[in-house]
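Exercise (ungraded).
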Amino acid sequence: MLNPPQINKRVPLVSARQLNKSYGRLAAVRNVDIEAYSGEVLGVVGESGSGKSTVLRLLNLEEAVDSGSYSLDIDDLRGKNLFDLDRFDRRAVQVHHIGIVYQNPHLGLRMRYSSSGNVAERLLITGERTFATLREKSRDALSASEFPLDRMDDPPRVLSGGMQQRVQLAKAIALKPRLLLLDEPTTGLDVSIQATVLDTLKRIQRQREITMIIVSHDLGVIRTLADRVMVMRNGRVVEQGLTDQILEDPQDPYTQQLVHAKL
Amino acid sequence: MTLHNLVHQKSGYSYGFLDPFAKRELRRRMLKGIAIPGCQIPYASRELPIARGWGTGGLQVTLSLAGPNDIIKVIDQGADDSVNAANLRRFIKRMTGAATTTDTTQATLLQSRHRFPEERLHEGQALILQVPDPEPLRAVESDMAKSRILHADADYGQMWLVLYEQLVQFGRYMQGASYPVMVHDRYIMSPSPIPRWDTPMLHQSAHLTLLSAGREKRLYAVPPYTNVFPLEFSDMPFEVEDQRTWVSHSTGVRNKFMTEIPQDDGASSYELSDTSYLEKIVNQQHGHPNTIAPTYYDEDGQFYHAGYLKRRDDAESTPDQ
């Protein structure tokens, strides 16, 4: 008797179905399905205004969805539609299971507090009340994101853009979430810094088997990191598939344009 | 035309100065505050013949609680004889017919600004604290609507973050007066600007504590025998002011809260902050018998709830910086 192929048996960690979101008359996201398996990196590309950041905000439960369902394959959440959770459960999911890195570090960090404090806040929210442990764990997270530890008590406002992104990353992975959302994490960084940050992301992804959903308009970033790509335009998914397949042999005219523009 | 003709006659006011509706509202709010320890309850703060910020919150609570059989004590930074305390005491007496005292053990209602008495309060007494700023989250969240949501969610991560930052920068908790406390494992409360010395006195106390901010129009309460703990990390204990070397100038007493008095030669002398306690000690030393209730801190500076307060030098490990 033959076993069916293993890959078919696996349940995706993230599965979102038929997401719809509009702002007034503008339909920002239309009937978008997203699946991402454990340990996979999903890239979302598209031009500005294509709805990719909105998708990320929906997945981070930051905004209410118009319609659609979203579930994570995590023990106590299995089978629940996360959009139906109340405020408290939603926050618990955000804190424990989802990490996010924004393009703009001001959205993700408290600029007045120390970098280690920004990371420690995540642990404080979950009830950690031992100062020594807080120091140790925030140091671990910062070193995992390759942040220079001698500057761990400097506030993010005196740090460079690349370092600020590393603090955001450390904060996002401090509680070892299963899902990491990245919204244009390297946009605005110069090319050499961008490369080192991408290196760090890749290493973390490999070491922790974390699922990443990375939103970017930069196909170079997507090519470096993503296993699978989803191309969005006007709130719809126009094409998706394996990264090299999409980038080398795009089928949809818009994707062809996009890839061509990159070259 | 004499002054007597110009001023309103006493009979023109209702009992306790506030109208019955105001008193009823305040009492309801107090009951709600007692039912939800540490939760800030809004109320309609009335106009009083003293300015906002001079104890109108505490005064409204006192006036709506006081009856003719009550005995009132008013404390201003530990003193019974400051202008503010004397004025409030006289006003309350005139408006309610209640008796007044300076003796902590005799009083039924104690209105206080920024201090607890040194002598332990007992069951049946109510301590009414005047509060300038009731919101402990003010420093971390300037939007009051948002801080109300934070309270509702018990989302106090930022308060802890502030303490973390202080430890990282200075190696100790820098907050002096008004040290934030967790009441009944639920609400973080600002205990009004009492020194850290007084903060532990809120814990499992026999008396009722009412805190009221007239300008901010909010009151909250700590009912008797309620858990109140200062925010502290498990390995960095909260400490009261270290005055172990300070000796009271006129009585030689140690380990009570002192006021520092600068001298002409640049040195300092120290005097007990609680004037009625000071008076009792002086009387006793001059051979006049006094009833002095047991104090919150004994002669060795040990707090009466054993084990509640740790000193830093008692702590076993010193965390890294």
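Further reading is listed at the end of the chapter. For now, observe: Chain A has one domain: 10-262. Chain A has a mean pLDDT of 90.
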